[in-house]
Amino acid sequence: MSEPTPPDRAALAARSGRGAATADQRLGHAIAVRVYWEDTDAGGVVFYANYLRFFERARTEWLRAAGIGQQGLRERTQAQFIVTETGLKYHQPARLDDLLRITVLADEIRAASMRLTQQAWRDDLLLCEASIRIGCVDAGTFRPRRIPNEVLVALGGGAEPAAPASSPAGRPPAGEPVIPSTVAALPSHHR
């Protein structure tokens, strides 16, 4: 079996059959992270739990790139995201001064949760991968709630606000799924 290759957002967007702007936000995002002393353990490699910190940063920047600031979202809607489940697989260690590419890929977006695949890459070498479920909760009660429509729209799904009668047609019909799974659009090594 061949080694997986880093995801190419443009290729993923093109295969999805959707516009690049929304497909890029839904299908993938990447940030660069430099490994510092504080990230390593006594053996000189990235401490295993620090990958969760890197993945958190990437998710935050993924939302920010889609126009969603988490503090503003909380203030406007009383919604916030929490991690409800994680599963990580470590392939190779990252070391001091490595420049990593941390990716986010939305596999599934439901009414109140998202399942994401996140990966840490050094050049074309996969170091760590994770499956992470994010839940949307009410900021005051921490009870599950629907993901705000503005987030769904920003990530390439959901209904846009009602248009004036004079605007062109073409809005998604009522009852259409919010965001279908993107797994079919991915290369087999990302499934």
| Radius of gyration from CA coordinates | 18 Å
Order of helices and strands: HHEHHEEEEH
**Unreliable stretches:** 9-25, 161-191
Q: Give the domain tally.
A: 1
Structural class: alpha+beta
CATH class: Alpha Beta
Q: How is the largest sheet built, in terms of strand order?
A: 1-3-4-5-2
Oligomeric nature of the chains: single chain
Strand fraction equals 25-35%
Helical segment tally? 5
Summed over residues and divided by their number, the pLDDT gives a mean of: 78
CATH architecture assignment name: Roll
CATH topology title: Thiol Ester Dehydrase, Chain A
Protein architecture, described:
With 191 residues, the chain is α+β, with helices and mostly antiparallel strands. It has a single domain (9-157), classed as Hotdog Thioesterase (Thiol Ester Dehydrase, Chain A). The protein is 24% helix and 28% strand. The chain contains five helices and five strands, in the order H-H-E-H-H-E-E-E-E-H. Strands 1-3-4-5-2 form a five-stranded antiparallel sheet. The longest helix is centred in the first third of the chain and has 16 residues, at 50-65. The radius of gyration is 18 Å and the shape is elongated. The two termini are 14 Å apart. Residues 9-25 and 161-191 have low confidence and may be disordered.
Topology summary:
Blueprint: H1 9-16, H2 20-27, E1 29-34, H3 50-65, H4 70-77, E2 79-90, E3 99-109, E4 113-122, E5 125-138, H5 149-154
Compact overview of the structure:
With 191 residues, the protein is of the alpha+beta class. It contains five helices and five strands.
